[in-house]
Amino acid sequence: MTELLSSAQMRAIEKAAIESQRVSGLDLMERAGQGVLSAILAEWPDMAAAPGSTVVFCGPGNNGGDGYVIARLLAVRGWTVAVHAASRASSGDAGRMRALWEAQGRTTPLEAFDPDTIAPGTLVVDALFGTGLGRPVACAFWGPLAAAQARGARLVAVDILSGLCADSGRVRTEGGFLDRPADLTVTFEALKLGHALAPGAVLSGPVRVVPIGIEPERTAYSRDHPAQVARRAQIDPAVAHKGLGHKYSHGHALVLSGGPGKGGAARLAARAALRIGAGLVTLGCPPAALIENAARLDAVMLAPLRDARALADFLSDPRIGTLCLGPGMGTHPRAEGLLAAALDARRGVVLDADALTLLARHEGLRAALHPGCVLTPHEGEFARLVPDLAAQLSADPADTAPVSKVDAARAAAHRFGCTVLLKGPDTVIAAPDGTCAVSTAFGPDAAPWLATAGAGDVLAGMIAGLLARGFAPFAAAETAACLHLACARRFGPGLIAEDLPEGLPAILRALG
User: Fold this and answer.
1) pTM of the entire structure?
2) Is 144 domain-assigned?
3) Model confidence pLDDT, tens digit, residues 238-264
C-alpha cells in the first residue's frame, strides 16, 4: 500500500464501498475497531497475555464510533474499560456503536476525566476526531491526551492523532499540543498525507495500516485518479540495470560550475551524476578554473565555457542530453546568461541553488521553463521562487485550513510546467499534471546527518545523471530522492556530502 490519501479521498472510497452494498458503515466501523485492537496486541504482546486497564476517549463522529467498538472488544476480553465522550454521538452509526457499548459499560463526559486515575502503562485510546478534523482543537480535547502521556500512559491514536490535520500534517489546536508522539497510530486501508508530512509524521509515532475490506474501491480510486492520489516515493528498479551499448548510449550530462574556488559544489554534482550511471559527465567552467578542477577530477571531463555563447556552441553536440545548473554557479551576469542558454536548448535541465535564485529574480527566465526541467528548492528557495504559495504553506492553521506541502509543490509544478522537488525530511516531488510522491525521512527512516553542506548538490547531480540515462523528469527526481536517502542511511552518522555518491554502488547492487 503506497497511497497517501487525503481525508476527502478516503471518504469517497468508503462511500463507494457502502454504495456498492458490499459493506455497511457499521461493518466498516466494526472492522476498524477490530483492526485497532489487533494492532495494539501485536505491538504490545504483554497486553495480549493478560487483561489490563484502558481509557477510551470518543468524539461525536465516526472516529468516536470506532472508539466504542474498541472499548466493547476490550471489555469482552476482560479489560477494565473507562469511556469518556466529548458529546453525544452525532453520527447514526457512531450512535449505534455507543448504544452497543452502553449495553455493557458506562460512558462519562470527557470533562469528568481525572488524570490521577492513569497508572503508568495504562492504554489510552484517542478516538476523538481522526481525519474528520475541520477546525482547531481546544485544549479541553487534546489536554486529556497530554495529561495521560504525562502519567506514563501508552497513547494509541485511531486513524490520526486528534489535533493533527490529516491532509497537511499540521497541528490545528488552541493553546499548544502534545510534547511527544503517540506510542502508536493505527490507520485504515492506506496512509493519510498527514502521516507522511511534518510534523504529523513525527507526532504520529509508529503507524500501522490495517485493512477494513475496501481494497477494491481503494484500488479503483487510485487507478481512476492517478494524478490526484499522492503516494510514497519509490525507486524505479530500472536504475540498477544498464543495457548493452557504449558510453554515449547511457547519456552525457553537463554540469556547469562557478569560477576559481567555487567549483566544489559542481564537482559533487558531477561525481553523483557519474556514479548513478550517466555514460559521460562533463564539468563546464570558466577557463580560469580549469586547472583547479583538473586537479580534483579524473573520470569527469572538463570543458572551458566562458559565457553563454560558448555554452550554446558546446550544446551543438546533440549527444549532450542533460544539464545541471546552480551548485556553486553564482548569480552574476555570466550565470544568468548560462541559465538562459541552457533553457533555450530545451534539454533535460536540473536547476538548483543559484539557478533558483536567478529564476526568482527574473520573470523571463521563469517563462522559459519547460517540461524537461526539474527544480529542486529547499523551503527558503521555494519562498523566494513562489512567495504566494510559501505564504499559504506557512499560514497559521488556527486561522485557515492548512495548505499542505503536497498542495504547494503541486501548485508550483503546475505554474511552471515542470517537475518540482521540494526538499526536506518530507521531500515532495510533483509533476505538472498533479502526479505526486513523498519521500519521508522520519522515525526508522530518519537520516538527520543529511543536513550537511553539499548534500543538495549531490541530489541535483543524481537527478541529472538519471535524466541523462533517459529517465523522465518525475521518475528521475523520485528515484534520486529515494537513493539519496538510502545512501545517507547506509552510511550513518559522520556523513559528509562526498560520501553520498560512494554509497550508490552498494545500494544499486542490492536493488539488482
Assistant:
1) 0.95
2) yes
3) 999 888 788 877 899 999 999 999 999
